[in-house]
Specification:
The radius of gyration is 25 Å and the shape is elongated. The strands form three sheets. Strands 6, 7, 8, 9 and 10 form a five-stranded mixed β-sheet that branches. The protein has two domains: 96 residues, no CATH class; 113 residues, no CATH class. It is an alpha+beta fold. The longest helix has 30 residues. Bound molecules: zinc ion. Zinc ion binds next to helix 4.
């Protein structure tokens, strides 16, 4: 009953020890856990605060995982040990910190805290003041960006662009069931968008080449600057991140 690996009984003898009939057996639990853990995970995108949270592919969901669990175990486990979707879901939710959706980017702490405290009713006037100021700054930054864009349209010696690191791209992306369990190749895309000319440049690399930290982003920006036309004398770059979050001290001090 306990666990069989290549036909060898490795569990302890449980004869005479009674457990309630509706209790999920240890072997069944083990099969659920090992199935959940057989999926490759991705770390979040800039998820500093919630760093334990891992992401499964966006093409997955619990129902699909449960289907795969049934498929995988129908020949290995006795029917009595194939648990219901409700139990599978319970284990998934209670024991793991997995999410299917890779967030495009983190919101800054000010925005996250404001939303949280507003919803539970603990927002203090001080926090409200900080948030309002933050939003005012955000609106101002947007206005500045618009003004710079208009300026660049009139002045050909000025380049104004935004840059943004896209959420991790996993390769290959497929709905074939075997691919769900495979380790994917993480790829990164930093795009730089010229606001006036509407030209975009994408810098793509994979985890084999480099990470996705401030140095890599700095390299992309450097390459972009090196490839500018000779007439460009002024460059204004905007990071598309939330204004309250200064994530890249290397870039801002460069
Ligand atoms: Zn914010």
């Amino acid at each position: 009953m306990e666990n069989q690996r290549s036909g060898v009984f490795v569990g302890i003898d449980k004869r005479g020890r009674h457990t309630p009939h509706n209790k999920t057996s240890d072997a069944a639990l083990k099969a659920i856990r090992s199935h959940i853990e057989s999926f490759p995970v991705v770390d979040g995108h800039y998820t500093r605060k919630d760093s334990n949270r891992k992401y499964l592919g966006a093409e997955l969901n619990i129902s699909r995982m449960y289907q795969l669990y049934q498929e995988k175990n129908k020949d290995n486990l006795p029917d009595t040990q194939i648990v219901s979707q409700a139990i599978y879901r319970k284990i998934f939710n209670e024991e793991y910190n997995f999410s299917f959706h890779i967030p495009k980017k983190d919101q800054c702490n000010i925005c996250v805290n404001y939303q949280k405290e507003t919803s539970i009713g603990t927002l203090t006037p001080e926090k409200k003041y900080i948030y309002d100021k933050h939003i005012t700054e955000k609106i101002r930054a947007r206005q500045e960006k618009k003004a710079d864009k208009d300026h660049a349209k009139e002045n050909l010696d000025t380049m104004v662009a935004t840059f943004d690191l896209q959420a991790v791209l996993q390769i290959p992306c497929s709905l074939v069931s075997q691919i769900y369990y495979m380790r994917k190749l993480n790829s990164y895309n930093l795009s730089i968008y010229n606001l006036a000319s509407k030209h975009a440049t994408c810098y793509l690399w994979s985890e084999v080449d480099a990470k996705r930290g401030s140095c890599e982003i700095g390299t992309c920006l450097y390459l972009q600057l090196m490839s500018l036309q000779r007439n460009i004398k002024h460059v204004i770059l905007y990071s598309d991140a939330c204004a309250g979050q200064n994530r890249n001290q290397f870039i801002t001090t460069a």
